[in-house]
Amino acid sequence: MTQPLHGFLRDAPLFPPRASEMARDIDFLFFSTLGVLIFFSTLIASLIFYFMVRYHRRSPNQVGRQPQGNTMLLETAWIIVPLILTLAIFTWGAQIYFAAARPPAGAMQFYVVGKQWMWKIEHPSGKREINELHVPRGQAVKLRMTSEDVIHSFYVPAMRVKADVIPGKYTMLWFKPDTVGTYHLFCSQYCGAEHSHMVGRVVVMEPTDYELFIAGAGGTGGTSSVASGEELFVTKSCNTCHRPDTTARAPMLWGLFGKTVAFHDGRTTVADEAYIRESILNPAAKVVSGYQPIMPTYRGQLSEEEIIQLIRYIQSLKPNAVDGQVR
Amino acid sequence: MSTQTEFVIPVEEAPEPGDHYLNHTFGLASWLLTKDHKRIAILYLISISFFFVLGGLMAVLIRLELTTPEGDLVQPDIYNRLFTMHGVLMIFFFLIPAIPGVLGNFLIPLMIGAKDLAFPKINLLSWYIYVIGGLFTFYALVSGGVDTGWTFYAPLSTTFTSTHVMAVALGIFIAGFSSILTGLNFVVTIHRMRAPGMTWSRLPLFVWAHYATSIIQILGTPVIAITILLLAAERLFHVGIFDPKVGGDPVLFQHFFWFYSHPAVYIMILPSMGVVSELIAAFARKKVFGYHFVAFSSIAIAVLGFLVWAHHMFVAGISVYAAAVFSVLSMLVAIPSAIKVFNWTTTLYKGSISWETPMLYALGFIGLFTIGGLTGVMLATLGIDLHVHDTYFIVAHFHYIMVGGAIMGYMGGLHYWWPKITGKLYPKFWSTVSALIIFVGFNVTFFPQFILGYLGMPRRYHTYPAEFQVLNVMSSAGATVLGLGYLIPAIYLIWSMRYGKDASDNPWGAVGLEWETSSPPPVENFETPPVVTWEAYEYHESTAMHSLAPSSRGSYRVG
Predict the structure, then answer these.
(1) Are B539 and A64 a contacting pair at CB < 8 A?
(2) Whether B405 contacts B372, CB under 8 Å
(3) Is the pLDDT of residue B6 over 80?
(4) Does B320 reach chain A within 8 Å, measured CB to CB?
(5) Phi first, then psi: what are they for A249, rounded to 5°?
(6) How many angstroms separate the CA atoms of B127 and B44, rounded?
(7) Averaged over B450-467, what is the pLDDT?
(8) Which of A268, B122, B250, B264 has the fewest CB atoms in 10 Å of its CB?
(9) Do B455 and A193 touch (CB under 8 A)?
(10) Which residues of A are less than 8 Å from B373 in CB distance?
């Protein structure tokens, strides 16, 4: 008796695997609100069944009896109680959502490009994979994601999180896996014919195994993306203007990443991935103070992966890499 | 009967059934050119049933495909067209026009004591516009369909797909005008055509619900029309609006789309809530508890419904603060919904409850809507949405609202007013059995989908991992039962039109102006224009006996 039942439950689990602290938090919230749902559904259903039987019409001419007294108290009660409950649930849910929007400092930065119908993933080391994401256990992982074509969504049920992957912008997803294992990776935003085949695996490994994996021959992409970015920087002639000297016609890129940049119209922004991407595709949108808007757009000339390679190259440019000429 | 008048039009045998809207004139032209709101309601009934069957057939194929993890019944691009057209047909051509088009059209003038709607010709025009929109969509369907999902998300819909986006979008665009005109007609009718004494606080709650619905139809539908025009501008003329490759923003489309399409959910459910209020009162023989709360909660839902659209975009990279605002506003919708559920349930207390078929649907509605609504609260909770967004959890949730709510209410209403509409009774045994089959089949179909969603199965998947199969097979089995449940009423209702027993004017012993006139009603609705001196749902021992007597029409008054 127990054997087939056991087999059935193994083949058709009722609980998805859980592989992060946040997954536990989200499950706790999920089942707590489910408890509220069960309580009220049962209450309403029981009352309906009880009244149906207790007040079943006994003679054809019988009519209902109107309630006596003040009913305002009852009306107020069933406005106030749901209001308090839903606001409490809201607060709890918002806390988790805010945490999910703020990756911890020191998270490993991965890049993800979605395209019909595959996931292209790049490790911090520059190693690349398709439809597979290997991550070390116990280390927060931050994915910076964009799409080459339509909207996709990066969803790892075991981590209980997802984020849409949207063309034209970078979105972010982070999780901190705490259990070694292989988990589903789904595209959860409908993206065309092969949507249901845009799936893969997230493999959580012991950190030492991850080191071996990164050093090993698995995955694709021989050259690191910083090297590819440097190559692009030359072939697209970025280097003719963006030179590491003070006489350049274009802003200094060495040491730029993460700094605050001032524009000619007085605005400022922190130089992050989104800013660099915008500056490549739409240079006139934000012109650095002291420079002329002479840069041509590279819209349509670079794939999202190439843009990421350029970003990673620019990230790698340290101020001290140039011989003493940086301000 | 005392209804005979001397100037009977020269039709053959008038004496036995009397002259009513169905036999007053004959021939196809008398139907296609009718300005009678009751006949237009019948036209809607026929056309929405057609689209319901069509959309239902697609659901059958979807559930059949999903019985196995592999994609072995249809190709992926066919599967994608199936769920897209299922959504488009069910939402725009069945759920939105269903209750307003059929029951609203038939009953609003009767309930407020009017001869017709304020603009009978515009009412007929609404139906023609709807049919033209439907034909466009039908053309798109037979010529290959569309595969973007009913949500038409850009840039998939504007740049990437090669299917018939524009034909379907044009169909929806056209049908939208039908919806706007119906809403306008109802608002003007409810304001201007009420019988003497029919004050706002005496209006049946069905009318209140339609008033709230009409507000959404008038204010919301133009936005989807504009969105479709923008979509067309990008798809046909490559104007950069949504596709970032030409300088657009794909998330902007979602804002536009949901600004209409979320309130549209309330266009589908509010009329059903109105029906349930009528059914609970009639079959508990009691005034609805907290009448004013139930009436104003409809308006509250209509207003709040416009302020929650971005809860469809919690994982679409919107700002966390915007998400928090939309989450808390979405929670607020739970309050008027809870008001309705608690008031309906309390109405049953000390009622005189009969277990007639319409009442079974109404009680089913309350239970299923409660589950659908509370899972809506779960989805509005930001932390939970991160996990279950775009999974089968949301599929189950909105089917609990749309099928368990809107269609249950529609079926209940159709059964309640069928004797008034056709003048015929249907078999009680079969109607009871089919109501129970539908309730069971519905739950077996959609409850497993909540679990599938929690497990992480994304929606719109043609193939899926093997561990999801058991629950998918359960869901498909339930869908078979549900389909059978819908088939039985289709048979006995059509059967009853010819073979059913004649209905009395007030077969349920209910109060309400629609029960004061004959079944089916005369062309002019009432022999003498009614004057209302009583509150809504006033049941007394004397009136119950009174209403049950078949020939008491016209003399009914409550002190």
Answers:
(1) yes
(2) yes
(3) no
(4) yes
(5) -85, -10
(6) 7
(7) 96
(8) A268
(9) no
(10) none
In this prediction the pTM is 0.90
Comparing CA positions, the residue from B482, B493, B491, B498 lying closest to residue B417 is B493
How many contacts does A have with B, using Cβ atoms within 8 A?
Answer: 289
Q: Does B353 touch chain A (CB under 8 A)?
A: yes
pLDDT tens readout for residues A40-77: 999 999 999 999 999 999 988 889 988 877 888 999 99
- Name every residue whose Cβ is closer than 8 Å to that of residue A64 and which is 6 or more positions away in sequence: A55, B284, B285, B286, B287, B347, B350, B351, B352, B539
Q: Starting from the edge strand earliest in sequence, which strands make up the sheet with A200-205, in order?
A: A132-136, A200-205, A181-187, A152-156, A161-165
Tokens of B473: 């097979």
Selecting from A74, A166, A184 the residue whose C-beta is nearest the C-beta of B251 gives A166
Cα B529 to chain center, whole Å? Answer: 30
| B349 contacts A67? CB cut-off 8 A | yes
Residue with tokens 């007013």: B417
Domains in chain A: ranges and CATH? 17-43+76-221 (2.60.40.420), 225-321 (1.10.760.10)
Q: Shortest Cα distance from B535 to chain A (angstroms)? A: 13
Largest CA distance in chain A: 101
Strand-strand pairing, A141-147 and A108-115: parallel
- Across the interface, do A169 and B317 touch by the CB < 8 Å criterion? yes
Q: Are A189 and B149 in contact (CB under 8 A)?
A: no
How far apart are the CA of A237 and the nearest CA of chain B, in angstroms? 23
The Cα–Cα gap between B269 and A247 comes to: 68
Determine, for residues A47 and B345 on separate chains, whether the beta-carbon distance falls below 8 Å: yes
| β-pairing verdict for A108-115 and A161-165 | unpaired
3-state secondary structure of B514: helix
Scan residues 499-528 of B and list those with Cβ closer than 8 Å to A.
509
CA torsion sign for B89, B256, B208, B114 is negative
Helix, strand or coil for residue B296? helix
Contacts of A96 in chain B (CB under 8 A): 382-383, 386
> ipTM of this model?
0.90
